[in-house]
Amino acid sequence: MKTIDQISFNGKRALIRVDFNVPLDENYNITDDNRMTAALPTIKKILKDGGAVILMSHLGRPKDGPTEKYSLKHLVPHLSDLLGQQVEFADDCIGEDALQKSKEIEKGEVLLLENLRFYKEEEKGDVAFAEKLSKLGDIYVNDAFGTAHRAHASTAVIAQFFPEAKVFGYLMAAELNNAEKILNGAAKPFTAIMGGSKVSDKIQLIERLMEKVDNLIIGGGMAYTFAKADGGEIGTSLLEADKLDLARTLVQKAKEKGVNLLLPVDNVIADKFANDANRDVAKTGEIPGEWMGLDIGPETIKLFSKVVEESKTILWNGPMGVFEMDNFMAGTKAIADAVAKATDNGAFSLIGGGDSAAAVAKFDMVGDVSYVSTGGGALLEYMEGKELPGVKAINE
Ligand SMILES: Nc1ncnc2c1ncn2[C@@H]1O[C@H](COP(=O)(O)OP(=O)(O)OP(=O)(O)O)[C@@H](O)[C@H]1O
Ligand SMILES: O=C(O)[C@H](O)COP(=O)(O)O
């Protein structure tokens, strides 16, 4: 793997694709800066080596060109704080001003470019747009693992303009190494914990994991499709009605492969989708008509926790319930505790990005697990065995 360690940045301008697609509140405060802090080691190393840094990223999914809401300028103060130096900003990612600023940048300085997605050419993977971006730096560094599954101008297409000078940043390398630990050479027992809202998002991953895991735990909203497929009553719980056959097939496959498939045995139910809803506990398959399951129940917590605590490798993707509401976060918190305990006992635990990462951050437990990925979709696709365009572009 070609990384920033194999190249000299002294006197060079590094054009780094980062994934600064962070959540912002209505006042443009960053509510989770994990993706920014995760990119710091690469930036700092290049600055220390005597290089200059030009950062490019997308933020959100702007549809109609420049929009205040999606401007990367909102990140400048926090990024400057994190780096301990003032970060310059170019309010267009291409054009005269960006070109001029990139030429004037000195050793040790950092320039952040405006949102790449203000140009539709970015997502289209437009070659001419990629070429314009490529003029801004001498060396291309891809450290945007969260966006590596996109074949966009800045994540993949641009690499062709740096045939001798394209490398992975530390974050990208760490993400790929940690994912490899799970995919190849996982110590046993290996347990995958799948949750979140939809089974349809994770079918391919679940099928692939069946080949590797000893235990497959399914919780969260997706578990109700399995309960319904088993003939149970699920009230108004989340259901993917067109995935009932698939759920039955997955249960059958687990049996054939000798995988220990664990589904919830009880559930915390609510009479509406709100934190102040009336609550009760119901056995799986026995949820009354107007009620919905919003978390795993106490018996399930015991069952799942025991298996997790005895594991040596753990992959967790997707919360066990609606952890954003305090009254329905106990299941997700208990599983986080079990993962932390196993990790303390020597297990390797990888938390898939997106909502599971947000949950672990909410519980202030990032330091209690082995690795929290910055990738949501990218991690899923990598785990499913797909080649990520952002990775391929550097390797080829
Ligand atoms: N029983 C449930 N009923 C309704 N929603 C649920 C339930 N359990 C979990 N959720 C919701 O599922 C959402 C997470 O689902 P998602 O499939 O997006 O998970 P993820 O894989 O962690 O996220 P990402 O795809 O961003 O990585 C959370 O917002 C959570 O509130
Ligand atoms: O948040 C993510 O998963 C990445 O930043 C990619 O964003 P996208 O799904 O809008 O391409």
From TrEMBL:
It is found in: Cytoplasm. Its EC number is 2.7.2.3. Its main location: cytoplasm. ATP binds at residues 202, 293, 324, 353-356. (2R)-3-phosphoglycerate binds at residues 35, 117, 150. InterPro entries: Phosphoglycerate_kinase, Phosphoglycerate_kinase_N, Phosphoglycerate_kinase_sf. GO terms for biological process: gluconeogenesis; glycolytic process. Substrate binds at residues 19-21, 35, 58-61, 117, 150. SUPFAM superfamilies: Phosphoglycerate kinase. The keyword Kinase applies. Keywords: ATP-binding, Cytoplasm, Glycolysis, Kinase, Nucleotide-binding, Transferase. It catalyses: (2R)-3-phosphoglycerate + ATP = (2R)-3-phospho-glyceroyl phosphate + ADP. This is Phosphoglycerate kinase. It comes from Mucilaginibacter conchicola.
